[in-house]
């Protein structure tokens, strides 16, 4: 539920209208200009349709320096951001040799495994020396090592399902698995704010897709009832299969899914539940087992659990966990398993070691400390931001917190101002978010110390004042000082 | 003065912005401010200004709603490439609140423009032609219709 000041909504529409109008004017003048110049590509078809490219050319390129910033160090709590210069108004950017050391609020480094770890990294280096960087084969040919088998067992045990299958790429896990699970004649009901990988997988499957209002179990029930009553389009035969796809933590909102209600509705109407825990596995829950542990849902009720290793485990790849029959079927039919190169062995070792640290099997309690620290950090940061008057989305305990910007001009302003003060944040606009709702997305890590967070709050407050994004009134300052003796703002 | 923005179920990013609060007000305010702008730039009578606004509105909205097809970004893999914006909004459902509002605005503009010019020619003729084309283009029966193949696909 996003609360927008009415004036901001009106001014945001107006700004976008102005930007589109100027973009069109520039396109027309480019058309006129090119009329006079000879084109040596007569007879060739254009590489991309002019109208499809409009947003990228006329809006995205103008603020391109805020996106895709290269880094030159590990994505730890502090990161080296490479500086770039542009001679043609951001159409092309050239890297310089200068870097600036910035506080990293953009990486999905939830548990701090993104840089050197005293337990994981030596084991990864050993595995690199023993197995080399790539398996150079798909899983079914020669790409399954003992580490891969151990990884799949480890993941299945960690997540709480009988078996698991691991893919080399998180995005490909969704887009390659969903077409295998369901086809024409089936129905996919997905949350309206699901990730693009799910949308691509669903579109590629050929099944009918229906969308329900974000995180609203009552609307899901309404859609399910309607669709089951109507049946397949045109023939009205009953659906072959119904899969409901939801995410654990929504990456653009930071909200946690209302899983117990959704699972009970799906059980009532006999639909399968597909849970994408990309951002929630390893980050929430008492032992880091994700949204099921946090909300007390029995993992046996979820038919397909999917997750990625890029966020909390500091590696790459994704997994699907489910019943033994399901995983056996996937191993025989999923193209990501049969044809794609298997996950590189050192990365697999990183995941196994990270899981061992989280569960405390390495003999220390660093895992429990990390989980406690990320929860503390997230709650502290969110509370302080809300006190300052920012509009922050997301539930408590979620390490993802978007700060609403709304106006398109505030996107580059906020981003550049933060970079000037050595704070690296990720800003997101249309079309990854709805047109009106541009935001700056903060990802908190367990490796951020309290001083780091306080510095970040000061910088964000200053940038927020400059860009005018404190849409809510700030909480009145308390008379007594903070516990650590530092007053904020 | 806050409004709540409920997340929509529209997957088409090109049209879902029209379902959020504040769009109608912005539209009307843009028309009003452009009338003031025309008045101050051209030093004409209010009636001529309204006629200019009406005709400019006709050109801009016809081009963007009923001529340009597809979406300005490539993420949706071109599923909407044969549909104009008018055919895309509300997922193709006809006679929704948004469509009724967008049909009423050119008519109201026409009435204002004709009234303030005292129904004189040639403004009346041009205004009537514009509103006729606008309203006919928005009929439910004209959904996905391409007369004489104008603006059809190759």
UniProtKB/TrEMBL annotation, chain A:
It catalyses: L-serine + hexadecanoyl-CoA + H(+) = 3-oxosphinganine + CO2 + CoA. It is found in: Endoplasmic reticulum membrane. Its cofactor is pyridoxal 5'-phosphate. Pfam families: Aminotran_1_2. Its EC number is 2.3.1.50. Residues 102-460 form the Aminotransferase class I/classII large domain. It is a single-pass membrane protein. Keywords: Lipid metabolism, Pyridoxal phosphate, Sphingolipid metabolism, Transferase. InterPro entries: Aminotrans_II_pyridoxalP_BS, Aminotransferase_I/II_large, AON_synthase_class-II, PyrdxlP-dep_Trfase, PyrdxlP-dep_Trfase_major, PyrdxlP-dep_Trfase_small. It is an enzyme of class 2 (transferase). Its main location: endoplasmic reticulum. Gene3D superfamilies: Aspartate Aminotransferase, domain 1 (3.90.1150.10), Type I PLP-dependent aspartate aminotransferase-like (Major domain) (3.40.640.10). Pathway: Sphingolipid metabolism; Lipid metabolism; sphingolipid metabolism. Belongs to the class-II pyridoxal-phosphate-dependent aminotransferase family. This is serine C-palmitoyltransferase. It comes from Camelina sativa (False flax).
UniProtKB/TrEMBL annotation, chain B:
Keywords: Membrane, Transmembrane, Transmembrane helix. It is a multi-pass membrane protein. Its main location: membrane. It comes from the Eukaryota. The gene is ATORM2. InterPro entries: ORMDL (IPR007203). It is found in: Membrane. GO terms for biological process: ceramide metabolic process; defense response to bacterium; intracellular sphingolipid homeostasis; leaf senescence; response to endoplasmic reticulum stress; response to oxidative stress; sphingolipid biosynthetic process. This is At5g42000. The chain crosses the membrane at residues 20-42, 101-117, 123-140. GO terms for cellular component: endoplasmic reticulum; endoplasmic reticulum membrane; serine palmitoyltransferase complex.
């Amino acid at each position: 539920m996003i609360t927008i000041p009415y004036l901001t909504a009106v001014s945001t529409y107006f700004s976008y209208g102005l930007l589109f109008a100027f973009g069109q004017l520039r396109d027309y003048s480019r058309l006129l200009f090119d009329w006079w110049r000879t084109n040596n590509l007569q007879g060739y078809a254009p590489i991309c349709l002019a109208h499809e490219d409009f947003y990228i050319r006329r809006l995205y390129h103008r603020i391109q320096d805020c996106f895709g910033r290269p880094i030159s160090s590990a994505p730890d709590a502090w990161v080296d951001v490479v500086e770039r210069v542009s001679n043609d108004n951001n159409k092309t950017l050239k890297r310089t040799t200068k870097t600036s050391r910035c506080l990293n609020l953009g990486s999905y480094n939830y548990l701090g495994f993104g840089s050197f770890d005293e337990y994981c990294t030596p084991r990864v280096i050993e595995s690199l020396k023993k197995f080399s960087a790539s398996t150079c084969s798909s899983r079914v040919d020669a790409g399954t090592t003992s580490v891969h088998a151990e990884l799949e067992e480890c993941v299945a045990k960690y997540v709480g399902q009988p078996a698991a299958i691991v893919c080399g790429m998180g995005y490909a896990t969704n887009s390659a698995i969903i077409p295998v699970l369901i086809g024409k004649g089936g129905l996919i009901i997905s949350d309206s704010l699901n990730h693009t990988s799910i949308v691509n997988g669903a579109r590629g499957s050929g099944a009918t897709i229906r969308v329900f209002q974000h995180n609203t179990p009552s609307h899901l029930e309404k859609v399910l009832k309607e669709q089951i009553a109507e049946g397949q389009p045109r023939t009205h035969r009953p659906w072959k299969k119904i899969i409901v796809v939801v995410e654990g933590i929504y990456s653009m909102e930071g909200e946690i899914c209302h899983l117990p209600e959704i699972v009970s509705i799906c059980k009532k109407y006999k639909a399968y539940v597909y849970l994408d825990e990309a951002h929630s596995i390893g980050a929430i829950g008492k032992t880091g087992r994700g949204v099921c542990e946090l909300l007390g849902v029995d993992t046996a009720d979820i038919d397909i659990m999917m997750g990625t290793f890029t966020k909390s485990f500091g590696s790459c790849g994704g997994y699907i966990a489910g019943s033994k029959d399901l995983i056996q079927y996937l191993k025989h039919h999923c193209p990501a398993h049969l044809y794609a190169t298997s996950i590189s062995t050192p990365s697999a070792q990183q995941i196994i070691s990270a899981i061992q640290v989280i569960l405390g099997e390495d003999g220390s309690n660093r895992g429990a400390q990390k989980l406690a620290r990320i929860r503390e950090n997230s709650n502290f940061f969110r509370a302080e931001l809300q006190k300052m008057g920012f509009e922050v989305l997301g539930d408590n305990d979620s390490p993802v917190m978007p700060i609403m910007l709304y106006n398109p001009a505030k996107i580059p302003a906020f981003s550049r101002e933060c970079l000037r003060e050595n704070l690296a944040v990720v800003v997101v606009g249309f079309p990854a978010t709805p047109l009106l709702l541009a935001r700056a997305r903060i990802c908190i890590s367990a490796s951020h110390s309290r001083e780091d967070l306080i510095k970040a709050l000061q910088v964000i407050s200053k940038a927020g004042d400059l860009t005018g994004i404190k849409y809510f009134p700030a909480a009145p300052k308390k008379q007594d000082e903070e516990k650590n003796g530092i007053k904020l703002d | 003065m806050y409004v709540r923005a409920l997340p929509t179920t529209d997957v088409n990013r090109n049209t879902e912005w029209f379902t959020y609060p504040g769009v109608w007000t912005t539209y009307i305010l843009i028309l009003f401010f452009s009338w003031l702008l025309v008045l101050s730039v051209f030093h004409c009578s209010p009636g001529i200004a309204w006629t200019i606004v009406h005709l400019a509105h006709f050109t801009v909205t016809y081009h963007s709603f009923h001529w340009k097809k597809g979406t300005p970004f490539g993420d949706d893999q071109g599923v909407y490439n044969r549909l104009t914006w008018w055919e895309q909004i509300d997922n193709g459902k006809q006679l929704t609140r948004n469509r009724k509002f967008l049909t009423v605005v050119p008519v109201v503009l026409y009435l204002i423009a004709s009234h303030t010019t005292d129904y004189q020619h040639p403004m009346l003729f041009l205004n009537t032609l514009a509103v006729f084309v606008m309203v006919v283009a928005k009929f439910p029966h004209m959904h996905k219709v391409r007369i004489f193949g104008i603006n059809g696909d190759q």
